[in-house]
Amino acid sequence: MNLEQLISTLMVELLQFVKDTPDFFNLDAKQTQTVFDRACLSSFSREYLLDSDMQQIFDDIGGLTKYLKHSAKLDSSNVLAQHLARFLCKQYNFAVISLDKSFANLDALKQAEKIDHVFKSNNKVTLAVKDLFLQGNFDSLAKMFGTYLSNFEDFKNIIVQIPLDVDASLRRNMVTKFNDKFGELTLVNVQINQRIVGGLRVFVNGELTDLSWHRKIETLTKTN
Q1: What is the per-residue pLDDT across 135-187, written as a single tens digit (0 to 9) for each?
Q2: Parallel, antiparallel, or unpaired for β 156-162 and 207-212?
Q3: Fewest beta carbons within 10 Å, which of 23, 118, 154, 162?
Q4: Which residues contact 193 (CB under 8 A, 6 or more apart)?
């Protein structure tokens, strides 16, 4: 599973739903919820469909298909592309919060059990997301997602380096603070770097803010 396959899975889900529910855009709120539940539709597709119409769907899917096949530039009016960008950031940051660094050292069976516990739904979209996290580490996934997300001006690629891993509560606090500061299109990758001794280093789109003890010690040494 790679990012292109995940995007294809999302598009297939949308097209199948539209084919099976041709009168969707004429339904009231209660009927809409009923057909969503009956189709076991992913939260991603639910949110996108409520933010779109039939013509927008076909235009968006056409634009994303060109992007996948020909690396064409994404049109800023592509609502599906925008939803996908937010979805990737949300899923990645959720995994960063929920899976500590010991996840990489688990055997395949334990990793699968952990992923199932974190991503509880079993629709096709969630299964594709699970497969992505089982196949790659956080750094490789951040690079993969970042290639797509770099199409959006508001995207912020955050790398936080800390000397030791922290619990889910502190990781959630970090992710929340960066999302509050920079918005939804923020990808937060937490890396362990024991050389910084204490404190942290933060890279925002490659620009470093060094709040590490290593930097403070280095500064004091040079001063003296």
Answers
A1: 878 888 999 999 999 999 999 999 999 998 888 999 999 999 999 999 999 99
A2: unpaired
A3: 23
A4: 161, 162, 163, 201
